[in-house]
Amino acid sequence: MNDTRAERAALSRRGFIIGAGTLAATGLVLPGRARATDAGRQLSVGASTARLAPDRPEMEVLAYGGTLPGPTFRVRQGEPFKATLVNGLNEPTTIHWHGIRVPIGMDGVPWISQPPVAQGESFDYAFTPPDAGTFWYHPHLNSGEQISRGLAAAIIVDEPEPPPVDRELTWLVSDWRIDPSGQIATGFDSMMEAMMSGRVGNVVTINGTIPSDETVRAGERVRLRLLNAAVGRILALRFEGHRPVVVAIDGQPCDPHEPTDGRILLGPAMRADIMLDCIGEPGARYAIVDDFYPGLAYTLTTLSYAAGDAGSRPASPELIRLQANPLPEPDLDKATPLRVELQGGMMGAGPLAGLGGLGGDASPGMNHSAAWAINGMSMTGDGSMGMDPIATFQAGQSVTLTLVNSTAWWHPMHIHGHSARMLTRNGVPIPNRQWADTVLLAPRDVVECAFVAGLPGDWMLHCHITGHQMTGLMTIFRVV
Ligand code: C2O
Ligand code: CU
Fold first, then answer.
1. Nearest atom of ligand 1 to the alpha carbon of 462
2. What is the pLDDT along the chain (480 residues), one digit of tens a residue?
3. How far is the C-alpha of 476 from the C-alpha of 292, rounded, in Å?
4. Residues with CB under 6 A from ligand 1
5. Quick one: which atom of ligand 1 is closest to the CA of 269?
6. Which of 167, 203, 380, 404 has the highest CB neighbour number within 10 Å of its CB?
7. 3-state DSSP of the chain
8. Residue located nearest, by CA, to atom 1 of ligand 1
9. CA of 109 to the centre of ligand 1 (A)
10. What span, in angstroms and rounded, lies between the C-alpha atoms of 368 and 473?
């Protein structure tokens, strides 16, 4: 049992014919049933056990609050949030609130934001999320191993007036590598994997369980929050017989649109909010297929329509647009350019050959070797004090960031503390007014995006395939 299940149960069905305006007045604003209990909550982290399916052996995991995934926090936009991390692991940890524009001291990057939280110690996180949306939290220390062992959970920031939907679901997708004994396989530091696609597992779960069916009702409109919490696996989801509409990416609203090729592409750490109109037939079943890796397509889960009850059609067939967040719009005419070139990996320009700074200039005090570099420089491990920023910006300054993937591999590049307006991919404008905090680059892709330098601090920019981050695909930029 996990929070999302509980949340599902708590979200009683309601009538379809409630307009957005009357919604607040009736008090029927959909999400947020657990809000009161979230204030100042304690979040323990430690060893636990879980079964990914009833017929699977008990598995040793790491868990927030003893559950897989950890508790889903619900916060209201613009209201203070507080959580005390209590570290029951036998190693240090921190929490990064991925995608939420928090002050640097709350960003969870060890040594840069805060000291590591040692075993037995605690740390108070407190911030007021400026943006509504789908976000998540995870460790930022030894994160390849800690996330792979189970440390991940959603934090959802509700709009003051959420759009009218019949139901809301959050699917936190995790990827596990299970060994023949039924336990999580070790080898988190495999250099060979780090030079290639990272750690891709052999079992995929939704909300900590190998999915069976998701029961839906003909005619309902579901807001589905998709979250890829894998450390290496990329997802490309197709909804058989349905036409999901993307309304937000990485928590930030976009123009509602059907995804290219009908596939929702989510690299590690990426999120999408979709509106799913249940247009299927009562009693029928429709597969949701992940076909990202050629030849390795599998059914992630199945939409299973309740029989008999035809329900009504969605109240309004028009697309539902979410209210924009208060993100500053970058001024492209005055923006300062920053070019970030990703280099290295297998089948790159020879493993690390000819890249100045690799190895020798990797930041001191880090015992990870480099497989990758950004602009010829490798920052490895979890980061450390004294890393030289790749650039320094004044708060409020607009920045155009050009991400150049000179490697043969995919990379979801995460910008801490900022959401960037997506401009072009390989010279072609990116439609639908998209923003992102994690930008997925295919091999050889060049993506231009822009943001306004936000709160002061040293902000990380790194690949969210943790094996890549640990071996050099990481840098920081400074805002003063
Ligand atoms: Cu979600 Cu630096 O990470
Ligand atoms: Cu990468």
1. 2
2. 333 433 333 332 222 222 333 333 333 333 333 444 445 689 999 999 999 999 999 999 999 999 999 999 999 999 999 999 999 999 999 999 999 999 999 999 999 999 999 999 999 999 999 999 999 999 999 999 999 999 999 999 999 999 989 999 999 999 999 999 999 999 998 988 999 999 999 999 999 999 989 999 999 999 999 999 999 999 999 999 999 999 999 999 999 999 989 999 999 999 999 999 999 999 999 999 999 999 999 999 999 999 876 666 555 656 689 999 999 999 999 999 999 999 998 866 444 433 333 443 444 334 467 899 999 988 888 876 667 899 999 999 999 999 999 999 999 999 999 999 999 999 999 999 999 999 999 999 999 999 999 999 999 999 999 999 999 999 999 999
3. 30
4. 96, 98, 138, 140, 269, 414, 416, 460, 462, 464
5. 1
6. 380
7. CCHHHHHHHHCCCCCCCCCHHHHHHHCCCCCCCCHHHHCCEEEEEEEEEECCCCCCCCEEEEEECCECCCCCEEEECCCCEEEEEEECCCCCECCEEECCCCCHHHCCCECCCECCECCCCEEEEEECCCCCEEEEEECCCCHHHHHHCCCCEEEEEECCCCCCCCEEEEEEEEEECECCCCCECCCCCCHHHHHCCCCCCCEEEECCECCCEEEECCCCEEEEEEEECCCCCCEEEEECCCCCEEEEECCEEEEEECCHHHEEEECCCCEEEEEEECCCCCCCEEEEEECCCCCCCEEEEEEEECCCCCCCCCCCCCCCCCCCCCCCCCCCCCCEEEEEEEEECCCCCCCCCCCCCCCCCCCCCCCCCCCEEECCECCCCCCCCCCCCCCEECCCCEEEEEEEECCCCCEEEEECCCCEEEEEECCEECCCCCEECEEEECCCCEEEEEEECCCCEEEEEEECCHHHHHCCCEEEEEEC
8. 98
9. 8
10. 12
pTM for the model: 0.89
- Tell how far CA 285 is from the center of its chain: 28
What number does the ligand 1 atom closest to the CA of 416 have? 2
How far, in Å, CA of 299 to CA of 380, rounded? Answer: 36
Q: How far is the CA of 473 from the centre of ligand 2 (A)?
A: 7
